[in-house]
Amino acid sequence: MANLFARKTMDVLLAEAREEGSHTLQRSLGPFALTSLGVGAVIGAGIFVLAGIGAHNAGPALILSYVLSGMGCVFAGLCYAEFAAMIPLAGSAYTYAYATLGELFAWIIGWDLTLEYAMGASTVSGGWSNHFIEFLNIFGIKFPLWLAYDHWTGLRTATDQVARAMLQAQHPELIAGTKAFSEALEALKVAAPAALTSQAHALLNAPHIFGVEIGFNLPAFIIALVITAILVVGIQESAKFNGGIVVMKVAVVLFVIALGSRYISHANWGTDWHSFAPMGVSGIGTAAGLIFFSYIGFDAVSTTAQEAKNPQRDLPIGIILSLIICTVLYIGVAAVLTGMVYWPDINIEAPVARAFLSHNLGWAADVITVGALAGLTSVMLVMLLGQSRVLYAMAKDGLLPNKFFGSIHPKFRTPWKATILAGVLAAIVGSVTPIDDIGKMVNIGTLLAFVIVCIAIMVLRKTDPDRERPFRAPLVWPIPVVPVLGVLFNGYMMYKLGIWNWVRLIGWLVIGMVVYFTYSRKHSRVQLGLPDPEPVDHL
Fold first, then answer.
1. How far is CA 320 from CA 28, 82, 402, in A?
2. Closest Cα partner for 426 from 226, 194, 155, 210?
3. What is the pLDDT of residue 441?
């Protein structure tokens, strides 16, 4: 059992970080590019979509839910920053766990990051597709339902559209998107399933292959492949593309805050604690767990450690600054949203856009659609970037086949095979699979990674206290305030996600254990006592 917790020494890791040449990743990212990657990964669906769900759980105290989620990330982010500056290697939390907790924990967190990045990218590709279709609607272009969704989601969407039309005809006083409308809609679906299904199939109008009705999310498939191609071409090109997208979407968020603040009614925020937080502290915690997806991705900055020009200085800047920027923007949007619309009336499906529509600002809603589209584009880019770097790091250690996942393109100096595989899988999953439950798994998987990193930083301060630390997280030793708060905040949000998310996480980790004991443990370079592998840079 001791071998299961074999560690990679810090000296070995630092030697790997000093490697140079065409067979290694290219160090070309500065502090602006790293911060842009963090902001690009974070600002997306959470600010334009999840705010509605959060508001119906926390009320105007949604502001505090974003603070709670942000605090959990800040505590974990400080621990990430210390590790990233000490160990400037691709792999992020996987590499940090290998150096402190041992191989088994490293595998668990690497497998967990695969869930976060790959499945997160698939989830975001579906959201991107939805906003792309909304964008086409601005110009009056209608996209066939069977090409806009996977079959199950397409049929559900068609059923929903038919039911909405029936409900609005029967109860014109109900406002679409409100909680009352959603509850009445669900009741109608239960009451007349056969009639709805028949009309839904007619509306879907999908082709059949061998008698089976099909559906394929074409926009999600294409955007995943486009992002993959950009990532293969090079890290500098990817960073420039991401930087442009980030500037656009931050401008849209600032526009939302500036314009929306003119339409705030302070009465909507409540007059006391009970009206401000109608569900109490529990509601704030539940909303924080649900909107945590809003913050997923800042840790992807640490996966580019091996591509940073000055990782000891720039990685902590990129991680911490991106978290601060995103938290401030999230709080601003939450305040504007709950001030513009009384919280029970906030639209669940498109909360920010509908808030502006309720004030007859349709043109502003179109701007928000463009911003959401840009936001989700950069989120996908950073998630697929992080995925390929984690796979690359695991392959270099023998836990995955090195000839494939560790292959560096001789011209572009990117882990091109791992990037292509991750991108193609994300494209396929996002285009043919209903991914609602997978999206929920991403939250709990990421929170687990944060908890492990917070524990690992305490272990390293104890086992290697004299190691040079270019950045030192505050209040870690001798009294570990920051990492303990990170464990508590993120652990609490894991608890609030509910039993079924725990069941899904455990199922995913069981699959990972099967892979580890059937392949990874037998090929581990640490277990076998082998030197570092020869560079893999052939096509």
1. 20, 11, 32
2. 226
3. 67
